[in-house]
Amino acid sequence: MSEQRLRIAIQKKGRLSDDTVKLLKACGVKVNLNTQRLIAHSENMPIDILRVRDDDIPGLVMDGVVDLGFIGQNVLEEESMMRAVANEPTAHKVVKELAFGGCRFSLAVDNDFDYQGVESLANLRIATTYVHILKRFMEEANVPYTSCMLTGSVEVAPRAGLADAICDLVSTGATLEANGLKEVEVIYRSTAVLMQREEALSADKQDLVNRILTRIDGVQSAKECKYIMLHAPKANLEAINSLLPGSERPTVMELAGNSDHKSIRRKLYLSFTN
Ligand code: PRT
Ligand code: ZN
Question: Model pTM?
Fold first, then answer.
C-alpha cells in the first residue's frame, strides 16, 4: 500500500459491510469489491480499502496502520477499554456518526426470571462478547457478578447452562424472543461511526477526508429527511405539532369542503439510532 493513498478499513463480511460499501459508493468512491482480495484500490480516487474482521478495525486505526475505519461504537468502545488495560495506544478521533448499524447492548434474562433491577443479577454468571462494557456498567451499579466471554451464540448460553443471564446486541429483539429471553436493561447504544487516526494526515489526504465527510453529510441528510402529511381536526393542531420532534413549523392548508379539519405537512429529521 502506498503512503500517498488514503487507507480505509471496512468490515469484510457482516452487518456493517453492505451499508459501508453503499455509503462509499454514494460518496463517489469507485472500487471493485467483487473479489476476495484483502486490499482493493479505488479506480477514481487515491484510496485503498482494507477488508478485515470488524474487531481488527479499531486497532488498525489506533496503531496508524490505516487512516480511517468504519466501525460499530460498541466494538470501538470495547477495544479502547481493552487496550487501556493493556497499556496499548488508544488515541483516535471519531469524525462522523453514521446512520446505520444502530443497535443496543442489553442485559437479558429468561422470560420467567423475576427481575427486580440490576441487583437481581448479584453473584450470577453473565455471558457476553463485550466484557469490558459490561464490567463498567456492573461496577457502576455496584453489583458483583461473574462474566463468561463468548464470541458468538451468546443468546443460547442460558439454555445451554453456561450462564444465568446474557448481555448482547439487540436490534429487533427477535433473537431474544426466539430464545425465551427478555430484555431487562439497555446498557449501551451504538451506531456505526467513521474513526480516524489521531496523528495528522498529509494535507492532501486530509483534504480528501474532508471531501468524503462533506459527501457523507449530503448523503445522510438526504436520507434522514422525510415529509409527513396528515389531516387532523383544527383544534388539535398545536397538540400534534408539539408531539413532532424539531422546532420547524408545519405548513397547514385548508381542506376543500371540510372546515373542521386541516391538512398538515411537516419535514421530519429522523434519528437512526434504536
Ligand atoms: O466477522 P466479524 O467479526 O467482522 O463480524 P461480527 O460477527 O463480529 O459482527 P456482525 O457483522 O454481526 O456485527 C457488526 C456490527 O453490527 C456490531 O458490532 C454492531 O455494531 C452492529 N449491529 C447492529 C449488530 C446488530 N445490529 C445485531 N443485531 N451486531 C450484531 N447483532 C446480532 C446480535 O448479536 C444478535 O445475535 O443480531 C442478533 C440480534 O438481532 P435481533 O434483530 O434479533 O435483535
Ligand atoms: Zn467481530
Answer: 0.85
